[in-house]
Records
---
Amino acid sequence: MITTTGLTKVYRSRGREVTALDGVDLHVREGEVYGVVGRSGAGKSTLIRCVNLLERPSSGTVTVDGRDLTALTGRGPGILPGGSRAGAALRQARSHIGMVFQHFNLLSSRTVQDNVELPLEILGVSGRERSRKALELLDLVGLADKAKAYPAQLSGGQKQRVGIARALAGDPKVLLSDEATSALDPETTRSILQLLRDLNRQLGLTVLLITHEMDVIKSVCDSAALMKGGRIVESGTVSDILATPGSELADELFPVGGEASGPDRTVVDLTFHGEAATQPVISQLSRTYNIDISILGAAMDTVGGRQVGRMRIELPGRFEENVVPIGFLREHGLQVDVAGPEAAVELAKEGAK
Ligand SMILES: Nc1ncnc2c1ncn2[C@@H]1O[C@H](COP(=O)(O)OP(=O)(O)OP(=O)(O)O)[C@@H](O)[C@H]1O
Ligand SMILES: [Mg+2]
């Protein structure tokens, strides 16, 4: 549904250049909720703004629902996504992409209903049809009774519901959300996320969202990407990410913690899915090789309806003394990742000399 290839954005200000995006290849499938995470300044907002061409990329392409947006012409962003100053073709394409903002961006002088109608006005939809559509959308987001209220009379969560209703006005296939819940308290955050998930399911809406909360990724996203320095450094379905040895994103999602208790110890991270019986495997390992195993940390959660777990254990002895036990864990179907493998492998080689 959304594909970017080699997407690059260089900002030039006061003689300095900032590469905000550095060759981003993003693939979001139809009907999925895709989360982007990363530190401040990683390029997340720039990426999402390039996806609907609020920001024109320096190079690369953006394709949404089979249309190459970068090939369409337009003169800047206008007042809203789908704003009035963009070229007709781009404006039309953008009306199929909804955008939700962190600070809601509602017009305070307009009622809730008139805020939702705004994109329809820009698209030239007749008054009656606008009104019908706006009321239908307000009903969909649970705010039918607030149509005549003004934004100042609403709570943060209600304002964001209006923002979502407005984003849906052009019947988008894609909804973009830049930190839509970061100004909200945890409970309101959950209800807004639930709404996004419901809209995703009910309308088949594809959602690309930016968040800095790992819980958001775990609770609503099918896939996720980690951005660093303008690049995507990791991406995939959430359950694949969790099963990837050495994944930084998996560590952030499921921190298992625990440090080695001494230099002559080997720390091993295990990942398992579903009912995988780690406990028996670990006690078998202990008995078979007559070694004491310590569990340094463990985490279990449900991702996309599947149980996933990570466990960090410690084996006595250095890596090179544990090659056979590690092989045993692998043979028993566990994803095994040895902390600091390069260093350990180097040590193992040294030891062999
Ligand atoms: N209009 C602009 N002019 C110049 N530099 C910009 C502009 N917008 C963003 N940048 C720079 O591009 C880089 C990426 O910014 P971006 O806003 O995409 O980061 P982000 O990942 O969304 O961060 P945050 O989590 O803080 O929102 C930063 O170094 C930022 O300073
Ligand atoms: Mg940002």
Note: The chain has two domains: 2-242, 254-352.
---
Amino acid sequence: MTAAVASYWEDTAALDESGARPLDGDRQVEVAVIGGGYTGLTAALRLAGVHGVDVAVLEANRIGWGASGRNSGFALTSVGKVGLDERIRKWGLEAARASVRLGVDAVETVRELIRSEAIECDAQPEGALTVAHRDERVAELKDRVRTYREGLGYDGVDFLSREQLERDGYLRGPAAGGAIRFRTGFGLHPLKYARGLAKATTRRGVAQFDRTPVVSWQRDGSTHVLATPGGTVRARKVVMATNGYTPEHLHPYFRGRVLPAASNIVVTRPLTAAEWQEVGMATTQVYSDTRRLLFYWRRLPDDRLLFGGRSGVFNTPPALARRRKWLEAAIADKWPVLTGIGSEWFWHGNVGLSYDLIPHMNTVEGDPTIAYAMAYLGSGVALSSHCGGLAADLVMGKAVPRDTPVTSTEIPRFPLPALRKAYLAGAYLAYGIEDRWR
Ligand SMILES: Cc1cc2nc3c(=O)[nH]c(=O)nc-3n(C[C@H](O)[C@H](O)[C@H](O)COP(=O)(O)OP(=O)(O)OC[C@H]3O[C@@H](n4cnc5c(N)ncnc54)[C@H](O)[C@@H]3O)c2cc1C
């Protein structure tokens, strides 16, 4: 069990006003939610606010301690890592279209939660860019825009040429050859958003227990019995909301289905106006690039640069120090004017990967009293906020749209789950080589 994670977000967020406290004694509720991130909090909010049931959130650490309090705050329309053409080929046109709608609906859910719950989380103007990291990738971005528009009937995307990127204050530099701009998608303060959700959940009368890890999960007839160090929670239903921190031992269904992978972030000192001019970003819209192991970045409202990327299989202090240096070097590589800028914060957190490269929201096979939503593949700010509510509906027996594999199929188990770390190391190696040459 760990306290707050040192990060820029932790240093700039308002206090947790959820009233969360460790469980002390036994409780009986209709639904227990395991995990106090966006998935768990939005599930609890829907369960109490719409279904009117008695709910307890059980969080091993602090509310928002997982990826929800540490991410880069991009609320995006992305849904997993299966490309558009492959979605059409494998799932059919209707499901591929529905997957694009799902992503747009997810961002709409975030916007609506911020509005209806009056969450102050520094929501920035709309716009999310995917930038070609090499000129050779520009044609592929143009094709992707065409597929969105002509194949999938979605016109919320524009192609921006190098000239447009420079002229309109989006980006400059050697790695700014062209981009897709998604009109839907925006940056927010992830921990303020998590704490805002927690406060809203408390207003609906939900009991939130932090520093309360569920250490065992038994059945007593139709009742789930969740043991924690401070007491036991008996619940008729459970929502599993643990994503990249999913324990392997707690329930046999969840063994071997999620591959946790580290994503890493640095935040620099505030850049000067002249430096931002050189970088070419006059906007606080959010960016990532076309690498397989993509870099992501944004100009924060206080003019610092946040820059992140996925790497690392082991979190030893020397490995973490290397990852920090690697991100600082990548900044200099993209914008030579920032060579030597260093960083004032560095932290990392777990994203959850699935074997079939898509997120999953469903009930456990053969047991409709357990719902789960997880494996957002590094793009879960919006999707977890949306899927938490869907998992709540599902566990309460309400029909949810089943028009994409995200909600119509179960999360598959990895073949040879014990080798997941080895897969990851292998993939990093292969993708790293590919990113250098393609
Ligand atoms: C560095 C980083 C950057 C990212 N950037 C972005 C981004 O910009 N945009 C985007 O869309 N996505 C991003 N993501 C992914 C996104 O943050 C996640 O998909 C999302 O927060 C998942 O929310 P969650 O509630 O499902 O999981 P989490 O927020 O990870 O919460 C899971 C919780 O479960 C708890 N838990 C685990 N086991 C137990 C137990 N036994 N008992 C009780 N509690 C337990 C954990 O303590 C944890 O708090 C990023 C992730 C990271 C790590």
Note: The mean pLDDT is 94.
